[in-house]
What we know:
The protein has about 500 residues and is of the alpha/beta class. The chain is about 35% helix and about 20% strand. It folds into 2 domains: about 30-175, NAD(P)-binding Rossmann-like Domain (Rossmann fold), CATH 3.40.50; about 210-430 and about 450-495, Dihydrodipicolinate Reductase, domain 2. Residues about 5-25 have low confidence and may be disordered.
Amino acid sequence: MAASWCIEKRGSLRLDSFRENDNIPETGCLSIIVLGASGDLAKKKTFPALFNLYRQGFLQSNEVHIFGYARTKISDDDLRSRIRGYLSKGKEYEEVSEFLQLIKYVSGSYDSGEGFSLLDKAIAEHEFAKNSTEGSSRRLFYFALPPSVYPSVCRMIKNYCMNKSDLGGWTRIVVEKPFGKDLASAEQLSSQIGELFNEPQIYRIDHYLGKELVQNVLVLRFANRFFLPLWNRDNIDNIQIVFREDFGTEGRGGYFDEYGIIRDIIQNQLLQVLCLVAMEKPVSQKPEHVRDEKVKVLQSMLPIKDEEVVLEQYEGYKDDPTVPGNSNTPTFATMVLRIHNERWEGVPFIMKAGKALNSRKAEIRVQFKDVPGDIFRCKKQGRNEFVIRLQPSEAMYMKLTVKKPGLEMSTVQSELDLSYGQRYQGVVIPEAYERLILDTIRGDQQHFVRRDELKAAWEIFTPLLHRIDDGEIKPIPYKPGSRGPAEADELLQNVGYVQTHGYIWIPPTL
Length: 510
């Protein structure tokens, strides 16, 4: 799908800042081309994100025309009907109808010059109708496609759909994860794409980096004086990064079995969060300065030890007819990563991700060391922790020990709490895809994965993944709806994590 967009200051955000940052000509139009427009990703994520940008004034009806491209032979109205249900929420019916009328559909193969010539012709006609000077238009290709077709699609774009850049225009591509299955396949894919596009043209999107609380990590760490002296091995005992889902594969068993929970969640999403938690302060907020520091974290990682890995598979997973009966794929994994540098030597970074568990949440949990010379004898109540709740019920809170109200000098655990739903009432938190699509328009690659970063990440996990693929490490069964196997809790205990008993964080209510 493609959306053409001209610059104007409007809405709650300042579009004129795009001109200031990027030298965007006022007359040039932007086309966002989403390949795979009839697929689930486009319907559930890309179209809703673009619709929300349209509602906020970033995509305006007198400037925008939308193109969808896929192999499915359907009409414009067919595509509109397919996506309407993912956009409409009752009160927005009129806006949805206006948005859908902007859509045009082009059908074609992903390795056919004929189809991409038709796409190029449709986009060029719209750019001409908008009086966009040749060479000033910008084209953003969004790959809502499986990685297997990335190389052929890149060749077609390069041969048939490139925009001239001599008058400020550009061509960029956005590719979705998974970026390969191991180091060799990731490097092969990077080489194939890299032969056709330069690194500044490539945006490897991981929607987790667009989440509000993930983007807050750097601000929390580097804009608050009281965190700076505490954020190191002298004060922090361990750090957990957790992703839990309360449902199983649910119709995606065949796809999931090809990748598993480590490739699907830990190697990319949780590892990206870890980099933000562990990195040194960058020279500035410039994308390359931030990404340089992330790469240094990955390059400082020690090899993962088998004894610090617990793999699990929920009972009933192999009942899915699309999953092989002898599948060795983990649906839950707990592992320890270690960073060999001055700041983090000896601090375990515990990564946990799993499906079919007893709760749904994603969070960062920083556990501090015990208070030396504790005169209140309150060690058994638990340690101080700083928790960033990524989803749901976005929040950040500090778990600390306070005096229990009353006449006795006794202590209890409580919290200092910033819950977004209470503190920022009426503020709509943007979806990750909205933010990242805007970043691609601005040319801001801070929240996208660089090639050397991708390579360093795969170097960490590939040896472990190959041992799992070869059946050398077997997953432990666990019951759906449980916390997972006891072995995972034992691993956490062995590396120093102290679980708090009797305290539960309850999101504040309005």
